[in-house]
Every structure is written in C-alpha cells, then in structure tokens.
Fold each of these.
Amino acid sequence: MSAGRQGPWGGDERRYLRIPPPTSSSSPFLKTTAPGGPPVPRMKGNTMTKTTPATLERDLDHTRAAYKEEATAVKHAHTAKKAEIMKDPMTSDLAKREKVDELRTQTRAELDGIKAKQQTYVKDLRAKVERELLGSQPSDANSVLLRRDAADRARRITDEKEALAVLEDASRGGDDSLAHAVGYRARNSGWINALDAYREAQPGAADSATALAKLESLDRDPSYNFANQITYSAPNE
C-alpha cells in the first residue's frame, strides 16, 4: 500500500489535516460552547458582534426554535417508549403503571433541563447586552472609583425630572460614566423621557438599550410565556 504524501515536517500529510468539529447549531451567528450548553453569539475576530434589536430577535427566535425542537424530540421519545411498555405482553398491569410513572418522571426532568438551558441562554445574552451598553470601560482603580461614584449618584436620583437634569450635566461635562449610570437608572425606573434623552446623548448605545429593554420585558410578554408553557408541557397521554 502506498504511503500518503509527505507533510511539511515529514510523515504522512494526512496527519496534519485539521477538520473543524461540527457545532450543534446551524445558525451562522450562534455556536454552542459545550455539548448541551446554551448557544452564544459568535465572535468576529477578537470583537464580539454588537447586538441590535434585529439581530437579537433573529438569534432569540433561532435559539428558541432549537430548544423547542429538542423538547419535541423528548416528547416523541416518551410517547414511543410508553407505547412499547403498554404493548409488552410479559409485563403485568401493575408493572406497566410503575414503568410509565418512572418514564413520566424522567421526561419531566429532561424537559425541565431544556427549559433551564433556555433560561441560561437568555440570562447570558442579557449580561452580554448590558456589557455592550456600558461600553468598553477602563479597569484602573481611578476609573472603577469614578463609575462607583456615578452609580451612587444615580441611585440617589428621586424622580425623572432630576434624572434629566443630571443627564444634561453629564452630557455637557463629557462624563460618560455618569450618563451610563443615569441611563441604567432610567431604564429600571421606567422613566421613558430620561431614557430617550440618554439614547440621544449616547447614540452608540441606542441599539443595545433597545435590545436590553426587549430582553427585560420577556418575562412579562404573554405570547413568550404561553409559547414556553406549550413547549415544556408534559406530553399528551
């Protein structure tokens, strides 16, 4: 048998061929960090692609569809296994009931596990968008202290009128740390006018702010919650 071609350092060239491992997601924007782990946004070079409302909706829909497909497969497997148990002529009725009960418990655990993965994905995505909203900030001691002071000042704001005034001061003085802190407070307090002013003062953060607002509203979205209820409900018996 003839040997393969010589590699650049001698030996069979086939030893040096590298075939990338397959990913569990077919999306060009998502990959899975570990088997069964939540998909995360792909890196572009050394920079993570910034999230926009459009990319958020696309990736969120894709990932939810993947988890729904996984949950559906679990339900189908449950149905097939139950039918197999019930058709077994060598098993008593009592034993069949016990096996079906065990199967239900196992299926419930698997569905809960998939649901937990989806929740982790959303949590990690929210953390990513929050980091994007804050921007790439220096980590030296003085900068950390400035951000801490800005956060303390923002927490002391009592109403939206004061938030607008502080934001104006921050914008006039070029204090991005304070502007980000006020924007965060405005978003969490439901101060729409202050949040709009923040987006206008920090246009580079507008997309991230909108995407984050979308993520933060998911738990209160009836259609989102209803879809999850159906996806992770017990199989029809």
Amino acid sequence: MPDTQKPHWTESRRSGRLARVRSRAGVEMTGLHAPADGQAPLLLCLHGLSGNLGTSFVVDFLSAPELEGVHLLTVESSAHGNIAMARRGDPPRYSLGGSAFEIFDECIGDLAAWVDYAASKTRGPIILLGHSLGAAKVVRYQAETADPRVRGLVLASAADLKGAFWAMHGDASATRFMDEARAMLRRGEGRALMGEDCVVGLLKQRISAATFIDRFEDGKPSDVFDFFGRGSIRAFEDLAKVTLPLLALYGSSGEIVGGGDVARALSLLEQRAARCPAFSSAIVPGNHWYLGSEPLVAQTIAAWLAGLAS
C-alpha cells in the first residue's frame, strides 16, 4: 500500500559550502559556510552538548533575511554528537568520539582551527556564537587566547551543566558517581562509560569516566558558569577576562540555570563580565533551543550586529 503521508522538507534561502578543518588534536571537523561580501561580519556558530552543525535554530539562520549580509559558519566540534564516529590522525583513522569522551579544553584547539578558516573567508569582524555548553567554550577560548580577530561573543543559553547534574541526581548520587569515576580512572578505564543511571544534560546523555572527572571535578576549566549557587571556586574567571561586546540570549523556559531563573542568570553574567565594554541581553519565547522563536533569535542577533558596526 503506498504511503499517502505528505512529505515534509525545508530548504534554506541561502546555499553554502561544506568545509573540513583539523583540530590541534588532529580530529577532522565539518562545517557549513554560507558566504557574504568580503568585508561582512562572520557569525561562527558552535553547538552545545552532543550537538552538531545542524543545530536547528542555527540552520534557520540560513533563511533569515536579516542575516543575509552576514557570513554564516555553523561548525562541529571534535566532540559532536554523544557517541559519534570521528576521523583523526595522518593518515586518518576512524574511532569513536563525541561528548561522552571529550576533554573540555580541547575546545581551544577546535575553535582556533575554525577561526583560522573564518579569517580566510572575510576581512570583516568574526563573532563567536556558542549555544549551551558551546557558550562556555567560546568564553574559554577568548579568555585563553585574546584572539584579536574575534570582535564579539554571543552566549546563547549559557548553561551550568555541573549545577544541573547535582540538581538532577542529588548530592548523594552525584558524590557516588564521582567516587566511581575516580576508581575507574585508577584502573585505567577512563574511556569506559559510566553506568546507565549516570546521565547528563537535558537529553540524559552518556558520559565516560574521564569526561565525568574533567567536567565535574572542582576547579576544572569546564566550570565556566555557576547559576545554581554552588559557590564554585572556578566559575566566571574566564568571563571576567573577556574584553569584547557580549550578547546573552535565553529562552523563556527550560533553561539550564538554577530554578529556570533566566533573569537572574543574565544579571550574573552582566555583573561578572567586568571588562566587557557593552553587554546586551534578550529573553525570547521558547525553550533551550528557542523552538518556535528561531526567526526572533535571528532578528535579535542581526540587530546586535548592526549596533556593533555603527
């Protein structure tokens, strides 16, 4: 019997080219570049935990008339997906990668490779947009490198994954998981996955022992934001080093901040971005991925970019 269901697909207003770069760690990463004029700004979009270059609201940017004059570069990190195939080395070989196995500071080499690529495509300013965990990564990159080619940051739904993990599992279970991960590392089992009850993020994703330690042990570089009142000894240190204009965005519900209080999270970001010359913010209807408000997100970013140029 033929399938009578109406097919559904969407096509963007703009076309682009696939690009492949290699991180400092030798991992090949894929991106999509939709070009604009040679001196136009370039918006480099990095996904969050387990995301990829097709993160839904970023793909919608390709159909946003407000961003037609902007280079759009949506990229994958070396830790795209939760458990995903990766190609690395010279000659290349295939292995398992993804967020389950990532070490946070590898984001510096990832972004360096993509900024190099971006700089070869425009003489205009490069703007880094990081979504969720990606927001922590763009802050970390700029704090460590002070890259003069980068002229602004967009923190899209900046997330406190450590606070959310403790809130999801409770202190007793989270502490038990930490003990288990440390024991696994001592046995040389860092790449082994934690038990199925030890999941992270809104989508309850898997995580290896080594990545668990790297993401959740006190004092680690991955602890960029504290929105749960954890009294972190590390959070906001990198943000305090950023000397660029910032735009912070949140959805109105389902965000990874303490109690879902996005107004408080925005206030904390503004207070802690002490060297930021201009801080802007917006709350749009929708969830952590701005479902239903993607055009408004594009309009908000376009208006902010226009303000930077004026």
